[in-house]
User: Fold this.
Amino acid sequence: MAKPTEYLRVTGLHAFYGESHILHGMDFVVNRGECVSLLGRNGAGRTTTLRAILGLTGKRSGSVMMNGREIIGMPPHRIARLGIGYCPEERGIYASLSCEENLLLPPQVGSAGMSLDEIYAMFPNLAERRHSQGTRLSGGEQQMLAMARILRTGAKLLLLDEISEGLAPVIVQKLGQIIRQLKEKGFTILLVEQNFRFAAPLADRMYVVEHGQIAAEIHQHEIEEKREFLQEFLGV
Amino acid sequence: MEIFGVPLPALMGQLMLGLVSGSFYAMLSLGLAVIFGMLNIINFAHGALYMAGAFLAWMGLTYWGISYWWSLLLVPLAVGLIGVVIERTMLQWLYKLDHLYGLLLTFGLALVIEGLFRYQYGVSGLPYAIPDELSGALNLGFMFLPKYRAWIIGVSLTVCLATWFIIEKTQLGAYLRAATENPQLTQAFGINVPLMVMLTYGFGVGLAGFAGVLAAPAFQVSPLMGSNLIIVVFAVVVIGGMGSILGSILTGLGLGVIEGLTKVFYAEASSTVVFIIMAIVLLLRPAGLFGKEK
Ligand SMILES: Nc1ncnc2c1ncn2[C@@H]1O[C@H](COP(=O)(O)OP(=O)(O)OP(=O)(O)O)[C@@H](O)[C@H]1O
Ligand SMILES: [Mg+2]
Assistant:
């Protein structure tokens, strides 16, 4: 197997919201084509990590290297243009846009994004609801839409925040299948999760986040033996 | 022919005048609504920039021989540019603060701009001739319609509807709506939101400048023309609600017409009718006719 190439490297990342110091030196790596999961309890700082990578928090320090480039000083729109797709925890579907307008909103940030037809084949519900107002979609549909909308853009790195949260088991299952398809297509995925059972079969590696730092790294082959510890730790 | 005891030509005349005022209300409240949505700033300088637009047209013609038609194109660009400078040097620092700061700053700016023109030109008002192509009137059979009034109504409707179309039906408009609703996320998708905010302010005040050029031949060009108008326009915005583009256009036109008709039927109330309607709307629908309740 070829030596993995680093796609995202976060080193000593500190981030603040106003005066509150939230991230205290995050260190982790995501290799090209990998699916890496950030696990942690509520308030551990996982969402903040994604937002800090994108430049959406307050003051930041440390280093974020994306594909060999330092991005910590860049404004968010330039960071995104390097090929990052973001699916936020609150889904971020726009009420003032229809379903299809939501889908077509994010500009092209890379080559070879999925076509609208491919996306509708992957998410048939969205095709049916294309003219509905974005926020009239059901919770599951909104989650699909939030995912689908970053697949069109040609982004190669996907930052997905708790996509399985609050959804019915069938939909969670469907999302699992989609993540697998995306891995086959060569996407690099950073999966923030609290749902260990959802993340375990998908992740190549996992990091446990606590108090704004990486507390542990777990490789795929260790996941089974640490399952009990992790489930207890995450309180599920 | 008479309607409720009023001769038809007089009625139609007032209706046209109402539509003319309504056209200005619509253009100005549209700009205010777009700016408020994107910048979260109540732009009190709007009236002053409208006045500056009229003055720039007058100065262009008087000092440099720039025709009305060229002014119609150049003045909005110039006023838009002034807006961009205001946004970059002052407004951009206020977005995270309460509305009140933006309101106070733009109110101060309005006083400064007005003061400058007052100092230079006094308050008596300067005439601006209607361009030859648009002078005279059309005989519609039941009334004489001054061409320039028809032009104001037609052009401003076109501009308003074009703005509505761009915002509601195009990709650029989708960016605008998205950035208005959730600027951070929109920027995280790779859209240059700070640039859009700057251009939105430029566009909004450019629209006020455009209205100023249209107004120059219709009214006297005077340093006070902006503050007289903007008070009514703010009432229009309160009545329509900040929420909707089409709403501010319709409310603007509608109130102009109501004002015009009030002149015919009960002239004493014509200058207060808008405020009476505002009070009623505030009692019944505080978010405005087209606004979204929070
Ligand atoms: N906008 C904000 N302003 C101030 N503090 C914030 C803000 N957002 C989050 N925090 C704080 O930062 C800490 C980490 O929050 P974060 O959302 O990153 O946690 P998380 O790991 O994603 O957990 P969750 O399961 O709640 O999503 C929390 O203590 C939270 O209170
Ligand atoms: Mg979170």
